[in-house]
Amino acid sequence: MTNQKIAVVPGSFDPITYGHLDIIERACKIFDKVYVSVLRNSSKKGLFSPEERIDLISGVTKHLDKVEVIQFDGLLIDFCQQVGADAIIRGLRAVSDFEYEMQLTSMNRKLDSHIETMYIMTNNNYSFISSSIVKEVAKYGGKIEDIVPPLIEDALKEKFKEQ
Ligand code: PNS
């Protein structure tokens, strides 16, 4: 038996941004172990493969000893049960996130009432960022250096060169 407090930071991370990274870093200050779980969002079409996303997240979180990055093909709550998670951590950017997040939290609570979902307010500098906006700007050659780490910027440039 251990008293370790375990968190899961789930998302589609297509790709990871400074906004996600901020939430992961702050989760590391509170929890002993933080799983970053790459899951499927059935309403989104992916640009990066799950393997590419794992590599990119691992690359930008290598300074965080508590983090383990794992891809999971299934329900978030099943992943949480497998790793013995105490909490699911999500970032909240603005009121517009609220309705979707409430649905997610309520459904996950219905599936397993022992696992709490907790929200961290996104740093103001990143509250306008989304992976979709980053992809849109990168696609047309716009400046994204303030919103994604250099590794991600390079990966996006490479991806759009291929297309
Ligand atoms: O970064 P996103 O796209 O907002 O993350 C959404 C995600 C991937 C966490 C959500 O779609 C998810 O949990 N997918 C896995 C399947 C699942 O458990 N769906 C929610 C049931 S309420």
Automatic annotation (TrEMBL):
PANTHER family attached to this UniProt entry: PHOSPHOPANTETHEINE ADENYLYLTRANSFERASE
Pathway entry: Cofactor biosynthesis; coenzyme A biosynthesis; CoA from (R)-pantothenate: step 4/5
Residues covered by the Cytidyltransferase-like domain: 9-136
Main location: cytoplasm
Quaternary data: Homohexamer.
Family indicated by similarity: Belongs to the bacterial CoaD family.
Enzyme Commission (EC) number: 2.7.7.3
Site (described: Transition state stabilizer): H20
Species: Jeotgalicoccus aerolatus
The protein, known as: Phosphopantetheine adenylyltransferase
Compartments where located: Cytoplasm
HAMAP family: PPAT_bact
Domain of life according to the entry: Bacteria
Gene: coaD
